[in-house]
Amino acid sequence: MLELKGVTLAYGPVTAVHEATLRVAQGEIVTLIGANGAGKTTILRAVSRLIKPKSGAITFEGRDITGLSPDKVVRLGLAHCPEGRQVLALQSVRDNLELGAYIRSDTAGIRQDLDMVFGLFPRLRERAAQLAGTLSGGEQQMLAIGRALMCRPRLLLLDEPSLGLAPIIAQEIFHIIANLNQQGMTILLVEQNAHMAMRTAHRAYVLEAGLIVAQGDAKALAGDERVRKAYLG
Amino acid sequence: MSLAWFLQNLVNGLSIGSVYAVFALGYTLVFSVLGILNFAHGAVFTLGAYLTYVLAVGEFGLNGLLAGMTLPFKLPFALALLAGALLSGLAGVAVEHLAFRPLRKRGADALLALVSSLGVALILVNLIQYLFGAEIYSFPSDVLGTLPPAVILHVGEGLVAMRTIQVVLFGVSLLLLIGLAWFIQFTKQGKALRAVAENPDTASLLGISVDAFILGTFFISGLLGGLSGTLIGVSFGLSGPYFGVAYGLKALAVIVLGGLGSIPGAVLGGLVIGLAEAFLPPDMSSFKEAVPYALLFIVLLVRPQGLLGKNAEEKV
Predict the structure, then answer these.
(1) Hey, are the CB atoms on A74 and B316 less than 8 Å from each other?
(2) Which of A79, A112, A218, B106 has the most CB within a 10 Å radius?
(3) The model's pTM
């Protein structure tokens, strides 16, 4: 479904990711783990076109998206739930969700999906009229995921969904991620919490200082001595 | 200090103040999306006034490259105002393309765009002088057609004169302000615009084309600028190609007074400065141009963030 081939990413003269090659197949949860600054977020930002690769190609459902602008990529069915949640703090919860459906114009379908998101996250329904900036961290994360779902994506990019959350809320979020996947959503998950990510994902890539150093079945990789030492403690 | 005196000043203050508000909103819109002041806004204000003049009167002045030329048609004032405003909107788009976009695409410091917008302003003003000449243009007194020049109301012992142009100023401004507020607050595209203003990266991840919204913002901003230029031009005459400079500075005082980047602030600031000018005692009228800045000075001493501005740490 998603394929990166030899993608090199740089901020100015500093190379952040070197020739990354990875793929995500339909129906999978693939996780990208690694230490802070390894380049995980950078890869997601390249997929959704917020940064331009120096070299390499990114294809989505067989289509080269390397030259598209970010808003065009969303229209192809690829939603990115960014790091730090990035809810629109000055707009209401409902407006945030409705803006998630910005690319759609089927009013009935949008209302249906709004109900679906409220069903997934009942707390968002209670707070629908509240400004998003007044939500707690966990609620903001729910809003960010809900908002990404509102465009009916086929591939969901999740960047650090557990960052800064209490363990119990993080668990809840991972539970929902697994559920979404069971309903058919393909997910590329970036996480620092390698434990939870490996348990939820089918396959994993391990990123170290901009290089993919290991990859494979998540369970097998979780048993790998090196990976365990470095990331699972 | 009669009621009539009070009402007369209220009418004068509200009519000019509402135009200040419309003009200042043009700055505010661009500022809230890009975080930069567009110094070409005053030049677009001037351009709008000149374009509307030519469309309504059908001829150019006695100087400049286009001296003595006439148009094959004359538009009724309302149409000329609309056409002039739309053309000013296009001028706003041109400003974006010339002064802002090239720098933004290279990731340049925002301050550089401020300087390049100043450069575009100079080019525009000199182009106006080159084409239209440096003379004073005055809209003919019958520009509003057969409408009476003023309505006189009897209030107690005194009289209150509402000039027709004042009613036009206030009416057009009010319509624009309400329409714009509704658009930004309640429509899908208005919410998307606020998303772009709050966080362009996030907006683009929702499928919102940030470039298109920036362009649209410059169009609306130019439209507001050209329209307010025309309204003030009809009211007081066009004193030459530099006529927008003084008003441009005044509008800057308006937005800082109201709170930089705040839309209600721009409206409130415009009305406050219009009213303050109107209520200035007649024997102090030589200080009229100083009123906005004196007021600004006093307000900033008490509220550095302006009347409706947010504290710096709360601002997004």
Answers:
(1) no
(2) A79
(3) 0.90
